[in-house]
Write a structure and sequence with these properties.
Length: 94
C-alpha cells in the first residue's frame, strides 16, 4: 500500500462520527486521503493516517475505510478487512 500513497478512500459511519466530533462535517461520500500506513501487528492491524483536508488528520484502522472497486488493491484490501474482522471476533471471545 505504501507504494500507492496517497490513496483515496471513504469513511464508514463510525469514522464520520469521529470527524464530526472534531468539528469536521463529513459524510459517507466524502473522499478521504490516506497519507501513510503502518502495520501495528495483531493487536491493531494496519493503521492509516487519513485526512479530509490538510488540518484534520486522524489515525484509523484499515477496516474503517471503504475503497473504490476500481482501485487496483481493492480485492487485496477487501480480503484483509474480512480476515481482520474475523480475527477481532476471535479475540473478543476470549
Amino acid at each position: 500500500m505504501k507504494a500507492e500513497l496517497p490513496i483515496t478512500a471513504y469513511p464508514i459511519r463510525e469514522l464520520v462520527q469521529i470527524f464530526r466530533e472534531k468539528g469536521n462535517s463529513i459524510t459517507l461520500k466524502t473522499k478521504l486521503t490516506i497519507t501513510s500506513v503502518f502495520n501495528s501487528g495483531d493487536i491493531s492491524g494496519i493503521i492509516c493516517a487519513v485526512q479530509e483536508d490538510t488540518e484534520n488528520v486522524i489515525a484509523c484502522s484499515l477496516t474503517h475505510l471503504i475503497f473504490d472497486k476500481s482501485f487496483k488493491l481493492y480485492r487485496d484490501i477487501l480480503h484483509y478487512q474480512e480476515k481482520r474482522l474475523k480475527r477481532i471476533q476471535q479475540l473478543n471471545k476470549r
